[in-house]
Every structure is written in structure tokens, then in C-alpha cells.
Design goal:
This protein is mainly α. The protein has helices at about 1-30, 40, 50-65, 70-85.
């Protein structure tokens, strides 16, 4: 039983970490920083998104505008990366 618990714990921790790595790669490859500066993400007073869902919607709109051709999972990975790195919203879908 203990082995199963440890295995599941490692799997779920690794899965979340993989989302972050994938999100960062997609974000970097799409050259998002060419349109946005980091201050837009860090400074709460100039942010347009106020929730995780709003920020995820902005990610979707940007990738469509820039023809990134991301799947829904890719958008989610980028949103998770941005949230972890800059926004720190409570993640409610």
C-alpha cells in the first residue's frame, strides 16, 4: 500500500511539473515577450486579468491572434506556467 501511495504522489508531482516545463517552452517559443513585457505580468495595478480564468482566456486570445496553433492542453500549460511564475491566482476552472 505504501508503494502505491508513493508512486501516485511522485506521478502527480511530476505531472504538474511537466505542465510547467511545457508551458514555459510554449511561451518562450511563441515569443510572447515580444508583445508583453514582464512588468505587465508582475505589476498587479496594470494587469487586465483578475482571475485565473480571465488570464487563461487572454492566453487563448493571444495564441489565436499570433497563429500559435496550440491545443487546449497547450493553452492550459502556458496559463499554469504564467500563474506559477507571475500571477499566483487560485486555479478554478
Amino acid at each position: 500500500m505504501r508503494i502505491i501511495t508513493i508512486t501516485l504522489l511522485v506521478f502527480f508531482c511530476t505531472y504538474g511539473y511537466a505542465d510547467m516545463i511545457s508551458g514555459k517552452k510554449l511561451f518562450d517559443n511563441a515569443k510572447c515577450i515580444e508583445c508583453h513585457n514582464v512588468e505587465e505580468f508582475k505589476d498587479k495595478t496594470i494587469r487586465k486579468a483578475k482571475t485565473f480564468a480571465q488570464m487563461k482566456g487572454k492566453v487563448s486570445a493571444c495564441q489565436i491572434q499570433n497563429n500559435a496553433y496550440w491545443f487546449d492542453d497547450d493553452e492550459h500549460d502556458v496559463a499554469k506556467y504564467l500563474n506559477q511564475e507571475y500571477f499566483h491566482f487560485i486555479e478554478k476552472e
